[in-house]
Structure formats: structure tokens, C-alpha cells
Amino acid sequence: MDKRILILGGTGKTGKRIARGLQHLQVPIRLGSRNENPPFNWDDPGNWQNVLAGIEKVYITFQPDLAVPQSIEKIKLFTETAKANHVKKLVLLSGRGEKEAQACEQIIIQSGLEWTILRASWFMQNFSESFLLDSILNGEVVLPTVKVSEPFVDADDIAEVAVKVLTEPNHSTKIYELTGSELLSFETTVSTIAQALNRKISYTEIGMDEYVAALKSYQLPDDFIWLIKYLFSEVLDGRNQWLSNDIQHLLGRRPATFEEYVTKTAKTEIWKVY
Q: Is there a contact between 225 and 83 (Cβ–Cβ < 8 Å)?
């Protein structure tokens, strides 16, 4: 009952990093995941009250993404449950340029609770901890045609901002745009990884229909395929092709570059081919 900050997705890309940061500050936390006790599951709202018992603040990440249609209903119910359990503040990890995510933001903003919104661009960690990892290991990255650049952001920077927002005053009623410090194409990011690893990694772009067919041939879940199609066909249309200085403002330093992320990640040997 002394765990004051709940981290949803506590074992995920940002959640595990935020947990480490708060533990370093000796801030009591509770991880929200299916394997914790009590367990948290977005599909089991009957148990949310137990997870929220004694909690003052919540860091919210939604799986698989706020872009999916069912997110609005679940975020609304979770916000109501949190308020009924005397939670004081909600910090939402949101996506840039996603209309469904912005609808979820409004639920948080209109809740009557303290709130902060963190709108993040594409994670650099998608290349090492998510769906692009296998492609990097196989030496062949195939993606739908992308004509724009993206300000990829390091999950370490997102976590550092989240820890600050969760533990310091003066961040309530703020929306922060979290981007890296450079606009990069997917082809450039793959080339940067290949160069650092001194390994050939091919990069190919194909039509969306062909890409979706390929995903289906791998028997990937329909909701994952829908999400990838949505992100590449709608969100990666140029609307997010600009840089924010919010990380610089909040942390007093520039965001990590993609090269810095690659150098750091290569040392973990996650990309090592045996």
C-alpha cells in the first residue's frame, strides 16, 4: 500500500526505464503488467481497482497503441476508475499526429485530475526492442514506401522526461512534444546501424498491399497488421516532419542522436548474429 506511482506497461520500452529511474530516486512504485501481483490487464477492468489501491500518480501507456479504435473506451474507463480511487495525477504517453491518441488526451485533460501529456515520435528502440529487430538480425529490412523523414526519439530520453514530470512540480496541464534532434529517413537509420555493425543490411521499400500480404504470410495478428498499416499510410505522411525542443528545455541537454543510440545499443549485443 506504500507504492505511490503506478507504471502501466512497467516492463515495456518506456516503462522499465521509468521504473529504474524512479527506483534510483527511491520513489515507491508499482508495476502495472500481467505478471505482477496484483496483475494489470487492459482487457480486465474488474481488477483495475486493486492495482490502483494506494496510488497517487499513474504513468499510462496503452497497448498496442492509442491509435487503435478501442483505446478511447478503455482510457475513459481507466480514467474514471483512477479518479474514483483518489488518484491525483495522470501522465499519458501519446503519439504525434494520431487523431485517436488526441481523443484519448482529451479524456485525460477533461478528467478533473492533474495531467501531463507526453507526445512522442517513433522510438529508436523499434530497431532493437520491437518489430524491426528481426529484420536487422536477418540483414534485410523491408518496409512500405515512406517519402518523409521522422525525428526518431530515444526511449531513454522519454523515460528521463517522464521521471521528471512524475516527481517534480510545474508540469501539470502541459503537453510536451518529444522528438529527437534530427530528421532521418528509415533508409538512413538502417544504413547507420549497418555501418556501426560493419555488416550488410539491405533496405527495400514496397507497396502497402504487398507489405500487408507479407505480414499476413507470417501469420501476424490482425490488430498488429492494422496498426502498422495505419502508421505507415496515415501518420507517416509528413505531419510529424518537424523537431521540438521540449527535451532540451526539460533536461537541459539535446536529445540523443540516432548514432549515439546505435553506439549504445550495439554494446548490448542485441544485434549480434551468432
A: no
